[in-house]
Amino acid sequence: MNSDKVLDARGLACPMPIVKTKKAINELETGQVLEVHATDKGAKADLAAWSRSGGHELLESAEENDVFKFWIKKG
Q1: What is the full DSSP assignment across 53-73?
Q2: What is the 3 state secondary structure string of 9-37?
Q3: Which of the ends of the chain has fewer CB neighbours closer than 10 A, N or C?
Q4: Which of 34, 37, 35, 59 is nearest to 48 (CA)?
Q5: Is pTM beyond 0.85 here?
Q6: Distance between CA 38 and CA 60 in Å, rounded?
Q7: How high is the pLDDT of residue 26?
Q8: 43-54 and 16-26 helices cross at what angle (nearest 10)?
Q9: What's the pLDDT tens digit per position in 16-70?
Q10: Which three-class secondary structure state does DSSP give residue 47?
Q11: Around 6, how many Cα atoms within 13 Å sit in the side-chain half-sphere?
Q12: Which residues are catalytic?
C-alpha cells in the first residue's frame, strides 16, 4: 500500500507509538496516508481505537517479522 509518510515507532512502548503517530499525522493533509511501524503488541488495539476516536481511517494492518505495520488515512 502506498503511503505519504512513514513513521518508525519500533522499540517504543505504550504510549509513545500513539504520541508519535499523533504528531506525524498532524503534519499530513486530509486524505494522506501515514504508514506506522511498531513492535509494541498493544499498538494494534491502541492505533485502531485512536484512529476511530480521531476521525481517521485505519486502512490496513499487517505483521511482518515481529513488526506491526499500519496504514492510517487522515480524516
Answers
A1: HHT-EEEEEEEETTEEEEEEE
A2: ECCCCCCHHHHHHHHHHHCCCCCCEEEEE
A3: N
A4: 59
A5: yes
A6: 14
A7: 97
A8: 40
A9: 999 999 999 999 999 999 999 999 999 999 999 999 999 999 999 999 999 999 9
A10: helix
A11: 7
A12: 14
Q: 4: Cβ–Cβ under 8 A, 6 or more apart, which residues? A: 28, 32, 33, 34
Q: Are 21 and 72 in contact (CB under 8 A)?
A: yes
The reported pLDDT for the residue numbered 30 is 98
Instruction: Phi first, then psi: give them for residue 60, nearest 5 degrees.
Output: -160, 155
Look up the CATH architecture of domain 5-73: 2-Layer Sandwich (3.30)
| Location of C-alpha cell 492510517 | 72
C-alpha triplet 16, 22, 27: angle, nearest 5°: 130
